[in-house]
Design a protein that fits this description.
The complex is a heterodimer of chains A (about 130) and B (about 675).
Chain A (H helix, E strand, L loop, with lengths): L14 E2 L8 E7 L2 E9 L2 E6 L8 E5 L2 H8 L5 H6 L3 E5 L1 H15 L6 H6 L8
Parallel strand pairs in A: 2-5
Antiparallel strand pairs in A: 1-4, 2-3, 3-4, 5-6
Chain B lengths: L4 E6 L2 E6 L4 E2 L7 E4 L2 E4 L1 E6 L5 E9 L2 E8 L4 H4 L2 E9 L3 E9 L5 E10 L5 H6 L7 E7 L2 E8 L2 E9 L4 E3 L2 E8 L4 E14 L8 E3 L8 H14 L2 E4 L2 H16 L1 E3 L6 E3 L11 H11 L4 H14 L23 H4 L14 H16 L2 H6 L1 H12 L46 E2 H20 L4 H21 L1 E2 L4 E2 L2 E2 L5 E2 L5 H8 L4 H11 L32 H13 L3 H17 L13 H4 L13 H15 L1 E4 L2 E4 L9 E9 L2 E8 L5
Antiparallel strand pairs in B: 1-2, 2-4, 3-6, 4-5, 6-11, 7-8, 8-9, 9-10, 10-17, 11-16, 12-13, 13-14, 14-17, 15-16, 17-18, 19-29, 20-21, 22-25, 23-24, 25-26, 27-28, 29-30
Classes of the chains: A alpha+beta (about 130), B alpha+beta (about 675).
Chain lengths: ~130, ~675
């Protein structure tokens, strides 16, 4: 089943993710109990496609709702917090899934180059 | 008033009770069944005919199992007790208790046996701060022979279930048994207390128990696992039974502190009972360094875990910056709802350098190139952090200042209490703070990373660059931090680049890293072995006479065994073998007084004043890096160091230890033995 939430690279060219360098795997994302997306990683290059049913995957990331997935996509949901609250959980290769999830964080919320770059940019964007 | 407590543990899961086995919530002692930084059981009290049994003895059989021997007595237990009570408890997937009652009289015994139970589901931070303000709902349910204690806050749900092997009246307050025991007969039952992290199923179905980091092994498997763990470690042969006992205690405690996750194969050391039973970057890395010649598996598990959790984003709430190695990971309610930043928290400025140092030291010992090859990207990101995010103002030094000003740590070096970085007059140093040992670690990390770049990653140009940067840092550091009028290195440069002039143990870490010029090192050694810093047991964190000195101050006067072990390693590195041995003997003699288990810290009173080391009130025990200290001291005393595919043995033993043998030391050479005997040390 397709959902309204877009996967990280839906509709775009495959994207190179430095933190996933050397990794080749397939991760399925289920939303509210239904297969929604498949993330394909080939040597650190990420692409996404709608899931055609319960496709085989090395790990399945189960999200409770589209809102959770969207919040993660916007870089507003910390994956560990989501796991502790029971909003997401993983079946299959946990190490792999966590590496992918944490790696995707940098795609959704690209960091500044350094502390000095941050300061030159007018200070922290998210300082408390 | 604090009570005598008994703890059993298995990684992240542990039970702390009083000496009778009872658990009663207390503002002074963290009693309870804890898992995932949550107290699943805060009350567990046994009464028989309304009476609390009297303690006879407690037997800690092993780290995960304990027996409590009790009696129901009227006046004095020896005269009037007709009923013995034994509680055998083991932890793992909750805890399991075998309760046995023996009737010693000639008459049948009619008894009402009650186990009261309650769970407050407090986050460990709430227990530590004695501040509970639960935002969710507690609930209890008794049905079908199961007592369920639970807590729910939105989708966050944790439960404790309690069942009994024999018929019990199960109510919301606990279990009740009506028992008749024949003359000289016995009655027993088994009670299972299980912890459940309930994850709501994403399709809206019933809750499903989930394990956040793998379940405990069954007891028989754990017993064989412990045997294998100990037999895999080198064998220590010594005429000092105390030293052998300390060594064995360290091995068992490190087994107990193994933190298993479903994410990383093997176990990495959790930091310490009761407050720090979780992954701590700094603690796990240093413990793994200490234990490398004995239990190299800790290092590989730690490196993998740290690499997996290495920061990839910029997040001020978590003090997270790309490339940084985590400080602490927690699983409790306050973390889940971002009232605390530990998901993970990245507020340590040294973990990233320590990661690189361990990476190299691990390769030197193990020769495990595959792991090193697999972590090249993470190593490069760590070096980038040192140069970019770690050096905020571009002055060439690593400094820290928290971005999370509400719940972040003010001090992000190993002395992370609020008052640890102070001038000699006691004034706190303004931030950002560049503590001296951070520079030493950065220097060492670059030298070591250069070695790996040349040897493993095939990048000699990068290796040359790193070595050049390290040399420049060393020169700059020896100029900027040296206090010529006092003859030691400043504790830190403060936010105005002033030298923070207190004399502290940190200067010993500079020896370990190799950043100190030899002439300056000699002066530092003089200070480290002076009465102001060396208490006779170990090196004080801050010297007597400094403005902030307090022998009971957490980081401003107490002795930390792991700190002294690193100082001794530094002395050894610069050739001060006699002084290194002197520190080893001091701490190991303290361990003897502490029943062979070193605590996290103890008071910094002079040895001649107290004759025995004085406990620090809230010290964790076992604490991973205190547990690792005896192992590092053994390495230092025997002078163990890899050289290519060979193990160098260059002992410098004091008279106290006569002869030492360490057999079957694992490493890239297979297994080797080391032998040393005492001789006069110049």
């Amino acid at each position: 089943m397709e959902t309204g939430t877009q996967p990280p690279t839906a509709g775009t060219q495959p994207q190179s993710v430095p933190s996933l360098a050397g990794l080749s795997t397939q991760l399925r994302v289920d939303v509210a109990g239904h297969p929604a997306w498949v993330l394909v990683i080939r040597d650190g290059t990420l692409s996404g496609k709608p899931a055609a049913g319960a496709e085989e995957a090395d790990a399945v990331l189960k999200c409770d709702s589209e809102e959770t997935l969207a919040a993660f996509h916007r870089g507003q949901l910390n994956p560990v917090v989501a796991m502790l609250q029971g909003l997401i959980y993983v079946e299959g290769d946990m190490t792999l899934a966590i590496r992918v999830i944490l790696g995707l964080q940098a795609v959704f919320a690209p960091p500044p180059a350094s502390a000095r770059a941050l300061a030159a940019d007018g200070g922290a964007r998210k300082e408390l | 008033m604090p009570v005598d407590t008994v703890s059993i543990l298995d990684g992240n899961e542990f039970v702390v009770s009083d000496a009778r086995g009872d658990i009663e919530e207390s503002p002074t002692d963290p009693l309870g069944l804890f898992r995932d930084d949550t107290r699943f059981l805060s009350r567990w009290v046994l009464t028989i005919n309304g009476q609390r049994p009297t303690l006879l003895s407690t037997d800690n059989l092993t780290y995960y199992r304990v027996s409590f021997f009790l009696a129901v007595a009227t006046r004095t237990i020896y005269l009037d007790s007709q009923l013995s009570v034994q509680r055998q408890r083991s932890v793992g997937d909750g805890f399991h208790e075998e309760l046995s009652l023996d009737n010693h009289s000639k008459q049948p015994a009619e008894l009402t046996v009650r186990l009261e139970a309650a769970g407050d589901f407090a986050d460990l931070f709430e227990v530590k701060d004695d501040n509970r303000n639960k935002k969710g709902q507690l609930y209890r349910r008794a049905a079908n022979g199961v007592l369920t204690l639970g807590y729910r806050r939105g989708t966050f749900q944790r439960e404790t279930t309690i069942t009994s092997s024999s018929d019990a009246e199960v109510s919301e307050e606990g279990l009740l048994y009506h028992v008749t025991i024949p003359p000289h007969g016995r009655w027993s039952t088994r009670v299972d207390v299980r912890t459940v992290s309930v994850i709501q199923r994403s399709d809206g179905g019933a809750g499903k128990p989930r394990d956040l980091h793998g379940s405990s092994k069954p007891q028989p498997e754990r017993e064989s696992s412990l045997r294998e763990w100990i037999s895999a470690a080198p064998t220590l042969v010594s005429a000092s039974s105390s030293l052998v006992h300390i060594y064995q205690r360290s091995l068992v405690d490190l087994a107990a502190l193994r933190f298993h996750t479903s994410v990383i194969p093997g176990g990495l050391p959790a930091a310490g009972l009761p407050w720090f039973m979780t992954i701590f970057g700094r603690d796990s890395l240093i413990t793994s360094l200490q234990a490398l010649p004995f239990i190299p598996e800790l290092a590989s598990a730690t490196l993998r875990a740290m690499a997996l959790l290495q920061a990839g984003v910029f997040d001020p709430f978590r003090d997270e910056e790309p490339g940084k190695i985590p400080h602490e990971l927690r699983f409790g309610e306050l973390t889940a709802f971002e009232e605390r930043p530990h998901s993970p928290y990245y507020g340590s400025a040294d973990s990233t350098m320590l990661f690189l140092i361990l990476l190299d030291e691990y390769e030197r010992w193990s020769g495990d190139r595959d792991l090193i090859v697999s972590l090249e990207r993470e190593a490069r990101a760590a070096v980038d952090w040192i140069d970019g995010w770690g050096d905020r103002d571009g002055d060439g030094f690593v400094e820290y200042e928290r971005r999370n000003t509400e719940t972040g740590l003010e001090n992000q070096s190993w002395k992370d209490s609020w008052d640890s970085i102070a001038f000699a007059d006691g004034t706190l140093a303004p931030t950002p703070r560049a503590t001296c040992e951070l520079q030493g670690y950065a220097y060492d990390a670059k030298i070591r990373t250069a070695r790996l770049a040349r040897l493993v990653w095939g990048d000699p140009a990068w290796a040359d660059r790193l070595e050049g940067e390290a040399e420049a840092l060393k020169q700059h550091f020896n100029e900027a931090f040296w206090i010529p009028e006092r003859g030691f290195f400043a504790l830190a440069l403060d936010g105005h680049k002033r030298k923070v002039d207190s004399l502290t143990s940190n200067i010993g870490h500079l020896l370990w890293s190799g950043i100190a010029d030899p002439d300056k090192a000699q002066s530092c050694v003089h200070h480290l072995m002076s009465d102001a810093l060396f208490s006779g047991w170990g090196v004080r964190t801050m010297a007597v006479g400094e403005g902030s000195f307090n022998p009971l101050g957490y980081h401003v006067g107490t002795v930390w065994p792991h700190d002294t072990s690193i100082v001794a390693w530094g002395l050894w590195r610069y050739g001060y073998r006699k002084e290194a041995a002197q520190l080893a003997v001091g701490i190991l003699e303290a361990a003897e007084v502490f029943h062979h288990r070193l605590p996290e810290a103890f008071a910094g009173y002079a040895r001649e004043a107290t004759k025995y080391p004085v406990e620090y009130p809230t010290a964790c025990s076992p604490q991973a890096w205190a547990t690792g200290a005896p192992l590092l001291f053994l390495r230092i005393l025997l002078g163990l160091d890899p050289h290519g595919d060979h193990l160098i043995v260059d002992p410098a033993l004091p008279d106290a230890y006569g002869e030492l043998e360490l057999l079957d030391i694992p490493g890239r050479w297979g297994r080797r033995d080391a032998f040393g005997r005492a001789r006069h040390l110049p």
